[in-house]
Amino acid sequence: MIKGNKKIINAWTFYDWANSVYPLVITTSIFPIFYAAKIALIGTGPDSNMVEFFGYKLSGTVLFSYVVSSSLLVVALLSPILSGIADYAGNKKSFLKFFCYLGAISTGSLYFFDPVHLELSMMSIFFASIGFWNSLVFYNAYLPEIAEKKDHDRISAKGFSMGYIGASTLLIICLALLNNFGLFSEPLIEARHVFLLVAIWWIGFSHYTYYYLPKETETKKITKDILFNGFSELKLVGKQIKSILKLKRFLYAFFAISMGVQTLMTIAVLFADEVVFKDTDDKSGLIIAVLIIQFIAVPGAYIFNVVSRKIGDVKTLTIAASIWVFVCIFTYFFVKDPIMFYLLAGLVGFVMGGTQALSRSTYSKLIPKTKDTASFFSFYDVTEKMGMVIGIFLFGFVEDVSGDITTSVLFLTTVFIVSFILLLLVPKKSN
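Above: the chain sequence. Below: its structure as C-alpha cells.
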C-alpha cells in the first residue's frame, strides 16, 4: 500500500461519514427520545421510568447503561481474537465489512422495537453496538498504513469532521421527514422508519470505502491455533507498549479520558430528558442541542489539530481534559434549564471533536513501525472499550444506588481529573 494516496485516504475518511449516523441518531438523539417515550408507556414508579428486565426492576436509563456496557465488554473480548486473525490472514477489510453489516442490520431491526418484549428488543441495541465498535477496530488500523505520521493528526481530524457533517446531514433529513409525524409526541410510531434509514445510509456509503481500500492479497488458512493467537499478539503488543514509557503513560490517560468522554456522550440525551426537559412533552430541544454539538465539533477538531502542531499532542489533550472537568462541574451546578444546556452543548461539541481525533492520531504516531497494525489498534480499542464498560456501568450503578442521575456527574468529574493528572505524567520525549 502506497502511503499518501489521496483517493485511498478520502475513501478511508468516508467510512466516518457512513458510520457516524449510528452514534448520533441511535446512541445520542432520536432513539433515546423514542426509547424514553416507549419506556414511559410501560414504566412504573413516581417518574414512570422503572421497568422489569429479566425479573429485575430498574430505571430505563440504568437498563440502557447496562446493555451498552455489556456490549462493549463483548467487543473488548472479541477484538484480540479478531485482530490476531486479521493480522495473520491479511483480511482487515473483510472484518470491517462484516461488523459494518452486523451493526447496520441490527440498527434496522430497531424498527420492531417493542417495550412489551423488552428483553428481545434490547438485543438490537446490544448487537448494533458490537457491530459499530468492532468495525472501528479494523477501520482505525488502516490509518498508519495509508498515511505518514506527519499527516495522522490532519487525516484523523478530517475523518471525524466527515463523520460529524455526514451524521448531521442525515439527522436533519430525518427531522424533515418526521416533522409532520409527531416525533416529539406519543406514540412515535413514525420514528421507526428512521432506524431503517440509518441502516441503509451506513451500508450504502461504506461501499465507497470498500471500493478504494486495497484488495486483500493473502489467503492464509485460518487454523484452530490462530483463533486465540490474538491474545498472544495482545500480550506481545502489551510488552512492547510497556517498554515505551511515553506510549504506556499515554494509554493510561487515554483509558481515563475515554471512560469519561464516551460515557458522557452515551448518556447525555437521557440525562437531559430526565433533568432539563422532564417537565415538558416537547423534546425538540434535545435535538437542537445534539445538532449544536455536531456542528461545533467540526471546527473544534481542526482547531485542536492547529493547537497540537504548535504545543504538541499531549499538551493539547491536557487542555481538553481540563475543559471536560469544567463541563462536568458546570453540568452539576448550573444545567437545570434549556439555555444552560445549549451553552453546555456548544462547549461539549468544541472539545469532543478535538479529543476524539487527537487521541486516535496521537496513538498512531506513538506506536512502533509494524505490520501488525490491527493488533496494536486492538490494544487501543480494548483500552477504550474497557474504559467505556467501567464508565457507563458505574454511571448507571451510581444512579441506581443514589436514585439521582446528577450524582453520577460527580463520578465523571473525578474521572476527568484523573485523566488530566495522568496526561501531565506523560513524558515529553519518547524513550
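The first strand starts at residue 50 and ends at 53.
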